[in-house]
Write a structure and sequence with these properties.
- With 717 residues, the chain is of the alpha/beta class.
- Helices cover 42% and strands 14% of the residues.
- The longest helix has 25 residues.
- It is elongated.
- The N and C termini lie far apart (74 Å).
Length: 717
């Protein structure tokens, strides 16, 4: 079976069987009948049917041997007279020793002991070779040794047997070996049972329908593995099989005509299909396969044209054919109008632990000593099979201290092998989608989709179509209207931005505390900075001048907040706050001390769209602050006495949250924000006056003014 999984964990087989034979002895008889029987039983078999010229064996044949799981050597009377055959045999024996290859000899009308003793006709053959290769006797010695090795391998003796019965026995033996290999391969996999059951129900193998099934999910989630396991289990039920690996990469390197050739080559069992077929392109696939029951896997598809050129429609294929497509892009499957789709999901905790231990300890029972460290590894990989395999393998046979060091290093330097695979997910996005992806990774993972949409639409990123595409391309998921992203994809986004510049102040987004501290305390920010996210709950004390933002004229998103404050805390009453277990009042003092800025407010970017600053330490916002695109203003626990003086324009402002800003005495004129939907002023105990323009806010949905002791007037709403 083409490109099927191997009996070892490191080798990929392109063919099941390679047939080595002497053409003049058996080409049109035994070998031809055996090849036909193997193919009819779905065994992907390589046989070179060309007449051989010259003394040098073709490199293509040597590669075909390396890419085959088994070799059947049909040792006939004149086999040893051919230098080509002996070169093939030497290569086969070499692969047996180093690659897990299996050699299966058929002694065709010859006495097997003669190979070991090399007498009779073999002695005559080698006398000829020694004469021809007297200047290269090492070659002859290698051939002799290969024959001796072959003589020790159990095989079939054709003498006194009906050829048809012998061929049936050989085919049955190969099929049994392949089934056994498939079962052993499954033993090295985790979490496959449910996947296989689900795929079996989608394929409908007992019907005559042509079925197209899509497997989709994020990079590294196991789509190819699922397709391989399904392929291993059902390929014998088809007249022809093809596993096209890495369609995305192969089409970029060689083009779609190359993949069309490869598809026909695998199904027709020909290394080089005729030029007549190749010149017809798509039509040749339809013409050849429309009457055949075939199994085709198109792995890692990323463009619709690839599917149109390789498996354009159901009527291309014979009754009962099954086409399986793996992709990161759900929308491609919709466009192809596949019959059903299966989403590959991350492993649950038990499955993840089993897969990780399989690679980290293999068959050695040492997990008890490493249980806590295994927990840290699972927390990092979050059920992603690729990451579990890579990290587990990297920790194999390492000491506890080495485990600790590696896991600590990953917090700062992500694993390159995993990151390189995931990075292709980012490179396939357009500019707008990349910006949405990075903003979610840095600022909005776990946030409400509608809220984030209003902000990123104001950034000009076409959120509605962008978020749909990111979901279709397996970059994000949406659960209960919250934006979700795998931790390793988020980490990949951070790393992409970090690699854009060694200087933090020249990066588009900042999240690491040490980078933000460097930029704000050294005043090294530039116009390149578009967003800053500082989590005060995990940071040390930060002192900076308000002027540190002066050079960041393109700053869109500024979030200085404490993630340990529960979101519901913003809406608690004063009475509830007094009894709240987190001691909010100490938290307020803590926030003031954490983010201390000095100097009068002079500048904040007028490009700001989301301004969230818990514990804002100054009395007001800068007088020259005119953020016309501002959507959210969140300054709970601030020291604000007033937001600003004078009239400004905030047409896009939707949300103002100033809860527990105990120094706030009055609100601004709200007529400047006609689209305001939410106003939270709970816990602003010094508030005396709410501007009467609040009564004119026609879109206001949420208004919280609870808990005021000094409030004197409120316009009728």
């Amino acid at each position: 079976m083409a490109s099927s999984s191997s009996s070892s964990s490191t080798h990929q087989w392109k063919y099941d069987v390679f047939i080595s034979f002497r053409g003049e002895d058996t080409r049109k008889s035994f070998t031809d009948h055996l090849y036909t029987a193997l193919c009819q039983n779905g065994i992907n078999t390589f046989m070179d049917d060309r007449l051989r010229r010259g003394e040098q064996i073709s490199p293509l044949l040597l590669n075909a041997i390396e890419e085959s799981r088994f070799s059947i050597i049909i040792f006939s009377g004149n086999y040893a007279f051919s230098s080509w055959c002996l070169d093939e045999l030497a290569k086969i024996i070499e692969c047996v020793k180093v690659m897990g290859h299996k050699a299966l000899p058929v002694f065709y009308n010859v006495d097997p002991p003669h190979l070991r003793h090399q007498k009779g006709i073999l002695a005559e053959a080698f006398a000829k070779h020694e004469q021809i290769y007297r200047e290269n006797m090492g070659k002859v010695v290698k051939w002799r040794e290969a024959l001796i090795e072959l003589a020790t391998i159990s095989g079939w003796d054709s003498r006194n047997r009906h050829e048809s019965k012998l061929i049936e026995e050989i085919v049955r033996d190969i099929l049994n070996k392949l089934v056994a290999i498939s079962s052993s391969y499954m033993n090295g996999l985790v979490g496959m049972e449910y996947c296989i059951e689900a795929m079996d129900s989608l394929l409908s193998l007992r019907s005559f329908d042509v079925r197209m099934i899509g497997i989709w999910g994020m990079a590294g989630i196991g789509k190819t593995t699922i397709a391989k396991v399904v392929y291993e289990q059902i390929y014998t039920q088809f007249e022809g099989c093809c596993f096209l690996s890495n369609v995305r990469e192969q089409s970029q390197k060689f083009g779609l005509p190359y993949l069309q050739t490869e598809l026909l080559s695998q199904i027709l069992k020909e290394m080089n299909p005729s030029s007549r077929l190749l010149n017809k392109g798509i039509n040749s696939i339809k013409d050849v396969l429309c009457s055949r029951k075939v199994l085709i896997i198109l792995d890692d598809v990323d463009q619709r044209q690839q599917m149109e050129d390789l498996a354009g429609d159901h009527n291309w294929f014979g009754l009962g054919s099954q086409i399986i497509i793996t992709t990161r892009y759900r929308h491609l499957l919709t466009c192809q109008e596949v019959d059903a789709t299966y989403e590959a999901k991350k492993l649950d905790n038990d499955e993840a632990l089993k897969l990780f231990c399989l690679h980290a300890f293999r068959h050695k029972h040492r997990m008890e000593d490493f249980r806590q460290l295994c927990g840290h590894a699972l927390n990092y990989t979050k059920g992603l099979p690729l990451a579990l395999k890579v990290l587990g393998s990297s920790l194999y046979a390492k000491s506890k201290n080495e485990w600790k060091s590696e896991l600590e290093k990953l917090k700062q330097f992500p694993d390159k092998e995993v990151q390189n695979v995931l990075k292709t997910s980012f490179e396939g996005l357009d500019d707008s989608e990349q910006n949405i992806f990075l903003d979610i990774a840095f600022f909005y993972k776990g946030h409400d989709k509608n809220f984030v949409g209003e902000i990123l639409d104001s950034c000009g990123f076409f959120f509605s179509i962008g978020i749909r595409n990111l979901e279709d391309k397996s970059r994000i998921t949406i659960s209960e209207n919250k934006l979700c992203m795998h931790d390793l994809l988020q980490e990949m986004g951070w790393e992409i931005v970090r690699q854009n510049s060694e200087v933090p102040g020249k990066r588009s987004r900042l999240r690491a505390h040490k980078d933000i501290n460097h930029v704000l305390t050294t005043n090294t920010g530039t116009e390149a900075v578009e967003g800053i996210f500082l989590d005060l709950s995990t940071s040390t004390e930060l002192n900076f001048s308000i002027d540190a933002f002066a050079k960041m004229k393109r700053l869109r998103l500024l979030k200085i907040c404490d993630l340990q404050i529960d979101r519901s805390l913003e809406y608690l009453s004063e009475k509830a706050l007094i009894t709240y277990p987190h001691d909010v009042w100490m938290r307020r003092k803590y926030l003031y001390n954490k983010g201390h800025s000095y100097g009068e407010p002079k500048f904040l970017s007028n490009s700001l769209i989301d301004l969230c600053w818990h514990g804002y330490p100054l009395k007001s916002l800068p007088s020259n602050f005119h953020p016309e695109k501002l959507v959210e203003l969140n300054m709970c626990f601030s020291r604000l006495k007033q937001l600003w003086e004078g009239k400004k324009e905030f047409d896009k402002l939707k949300s103002v949250i100033l809860c527990h800003s105990q120094n706030l005495t009055k609100t601004p004129d709200f007529s400047i924000a006609p689209n305001l939907k939410k106003l939270i002023l709970k816990g602003c105990t010094s508030l005396v006056e709410v501007h009467p323009s609040i009564g004119a806010l026609k879109k206001l949905i949420v208004l919280d003014l609870e808990g005021y002791k000094k409030l004197k007037s409120l316009s009728r709403v």
